[in-house]
Structures are given as structure tokens and as C-alpha cells.
Fold these 2 entries.
Entry 1:
Amino acid sequence: MNKYIKFSAPFVFLLSLILILVFKTVPSGKLWKNYSVVCVPVQTPDSTVMSAINKAGIKNAVSLSGQYLPISLSENSVEVSMLRLNYTSAEYAYLNKRNAMFYDKSQTYRLYYIPGIYSSETVALVKTLESQGIECIKDSSADYPWLLPFIGLLLAGMLFLFVKNKIPFACGAVIPLVFLYSNPFYPVATATCLSLLCLFFASNLWRRRGAVTSLIQRNSAPAMMAIAIICAFSSSVSSGFLFILAILGTAGALASCWFVEDFIRNKKTFVPVYIRSAKRVSMFAGKVFTSLSIVTGAVALFILLIFVTSSNSIKTSSAKLLFPGNSNNIETSLPQFEEYYKWNWNVKTYPYKSLNNYDEDDSVVTFSDFVENPDTGIIQEQKITLKYDDSFRREVYEGIDKLQFDSVEKVMKSEGEDFCGGYTATSSYQINLFGIIMCFICLFILLFIYISIIIRKGIHK
């Protein structure tokens, strides 16, 4: 059994380290890859905003007033004429849906999409609009919160000074710190504090008889790990699963450290052995109040930072301003590429569909076209067949770049073919109420342990 653990432990450590780095989540306030979004109240005159955009030197801005039919057909074509006659029919509902891309979910703000190359010009645009008394919101990339991993590293360093067995602690602390670096969110930070304290306990009982049993029987360690896992899930589901992976990676690091120490110890002629069992040794290594104060202080500092740096974003989901963007959840009121393809199909085939045969395959349309032979002058009939298939979708998708105006479809295309229209917050830095509650629970369990130790010491006296 030990042989399998010996070879699998380093593999688990490396795999968890790689996966945590690959699937890291960094806070960002940017809604679109290649566009910035400027929002103004809906009552703001469009001409005022467009004038400010032009004066700022911004070109190819995508606005509601600049939208036309997103299809490469002549204005005088029979297809466009039929579209105008049936504009309100269900087949052409896409045109109304695309208008929703220019408003937030509550219809409070009107949106303008600015190409990402005009970063400095966009800042100037916002200042110009605000100088005119127009409230203006701009999405932007959130700065990486270096303070969170720095405090985590500082906490690990201070615990390292007081821990009994420093090498196991240093090896085990790698994964939790990398996890916090890859997921710099407040619930994750507080969960990391608890995991470092549990690692502190394990390192102090390192290589003593009954160490694992003692850790389990002393309820504080299992309770803290359970709360830490729930706290990580309160940040996001992905953070929760990555935290579980981090626990496995830490176990792999400790197991690897154990076997490396065994290898070194076997080379020596004399190896000291601990006499006292884990039950007779303090998990705090005689530094109860110091170590608990450090960890409790770190958690309290994280909670304080929530209210200092995120006071504007501590809201329930219904109170958040939500804007159109690429989301994992499809919003039926926003346009999707499949609807755009279908709209193109309806426009191009409506004049040629039979009004009598309702049961025929709607994905294939065949009609006659009459062309004049340039050599003979004879008008000949041509059979043209259109099929709604992947080839048609590809043609429509690639044709977006050929549109003669700055269409919202170009914004959608900037996200790729797998674009999924949905509403998203202007910043993934938002923290939900459950996350805040779990941060406080982490603090309360540390205070509970702290007070319990004080009471026990008073009883023993």
C-alpha cells in the first residue's frame, strides 16, 4: 500500500497544482474581449453621446442609432421588400431582440460599444460626458487584488515561525497559497486561513503516534475544514471543487515529504524517535494565543476589506446592474447566433416559399430564377436550391464582417462562434450575501476556539 502512495503522492500534488493554475479565476470588470461598454441613462439624447464619441476621436463605435438590416441585400430587392411587409411577424423577431443588446436588463441605461483600441479615448469620453452632467458607467478590467494573496503569504510566514516542524508546513502551504493566488476572492481567502491553521496543527503533530486519529478526535480541525469547504463553495462552485482539489494536493505534498524524510532517515545510523504520542502534545506547539490571534486577525482583516473595497458591490442579485454579455446562461430576450442564422434564412427564402404546401421541409427551398444568356440573348430558367445547414450558417457568420455598418453582430462575433447571449454583472468582483455570511462564520469558529481555550485554562487553574 505504501508503495502505491509513494508514487501517486507526487503525481497528485503536481496534477492539483497544474489544474488550479489552469482553471484559475481572476476578477475582471470587462464584459467583452474587444470592446469597452459605456452606459448612459436612457433619457440622455443619443445625438449628445454620438457627438462626444466623434469629438473623442473614436471610430467604429456600435450604437443603437447606427443599426440597419444586418444582411447583405439590395434595398430594392424582393427579399427586403417582403421583410418590410412582414416586419412584425414572428419570423423576424430577431430584429427586436438585437435592440435589447443596447440596454441593461432593467432598461435604465443605454449602451455604446467602443472598440478596445480606444482605451485612452474612452476615458476622455467618460470625462466629457460627466462634465456635461451626464451620469456615465464604464466597464473596465479590475485590478488584480494583490492584497489578498499577500496577506495569505504573510500569514503562512508568521505561522512558519512558530510551527514545530517547518519542512512539512512549508511543503503543505504551497498548494493553499497557489489556490488563493489563482482565486483571489474573500471567501476563498478566509477558507485558506482555516486550511493553513489545520496544516499548522498537522505539522505540530508530525510523525507522532496517533497523529491522524488525534486530529480527527479533536473536533476543531474537522469542523474548520468543513466550514472552509463550504466557504470556498460560497464564492463559486468552481472555487469549491478547486478547493477540494487543493486539499488533495496538500495531502499529496505532505505524503511526499513523509517519504523523502524516510529516505533521508534510512541513510542515517541514528534516528531520534518521538516518545510522547500526539494526544500528549499541543496542536498549537505552546503558542495557542499567538497562532490563534494571527489567524483570527487575518480573517478579520479580510472581512474588513470586504466592506472597505467592495462596499458598492455588496448587493443581492436583483439589485445588481446587469448588462448583455457572453454568459453561461442563455437569456431568451437577447439575440443568439442561431436566431440570427434563422432570421437570415427567413429573409432570403420567404419570397420563394410555397403558400400551399405547409407540410414541406422548411429547411430546403427550391425556386426558379430566369437569367439572360449573354451570347444568345435567350432567357433561360435556372433552378436554385437553398438549404439551411452548417454551410449556410458558416456563410452567414463569415458575412458579418462584410456588413457596411458597425453592427451589434460584430460585437457578438468578437466573442467567437460559441457566443451565448446572457446578462452579466459589470464586475466579477461582486460578493454575494452567502459569501459574506460564510466569512463571518469562519471568524466566529476561530473566536469560539479562542474563548473555549481561555475557559478551559481558567477551569484548570
Note: The beta strands are 35-41, 109-115, 137-138, 322-326, 364-372, 379-387, 421-425.
Entry 2:
Amino acid sequence: MTNSDIPAYRVQLLPAPMVIAADGLPVENSHVVEIVFPGDTIDTTLGKVNTIVGPGTAKIIVEDATYRGISLC
């Protein structure tokens, strides 16, 4: 499957994580498997603290296909 063949999916977090199609409707037979936020540590007066440094992405399954790097909305 080439990049142009991948449907335009996004992941909506609230009220529960769900896969959303380009038309804004939930995708049947889909599951959000994992959500990842890029992180880093910063130094504070209380020591090192983990922090998010960029937008999150999700790994989803739609029917029998797995997609990674799906944007959150």
C-alpha cells in the first residue's frame, strides 16, 4: 500500500479514543491501539521532570490493516 492509498484517518481522544474518517464520522471495525507523545526531560528546581515536546500520534487497526503515525484531533 503506498502513501496515496492510505485513507485519511485521525484519532479523536474525547469522549473516548476513536478512529475518525476524513468525513468526520467514526470508522467501523477500528481500534486505537496506542497513543504516543514525544517526550523529553527538563531540569527544574525540584529535579528532572518529564514533559511532552510535540504532537501525539496513534497506532490504529482498521479491519485487518494496521496504521502508524495517525494524527490526533
Note: The longest strand covers residues 30-36.
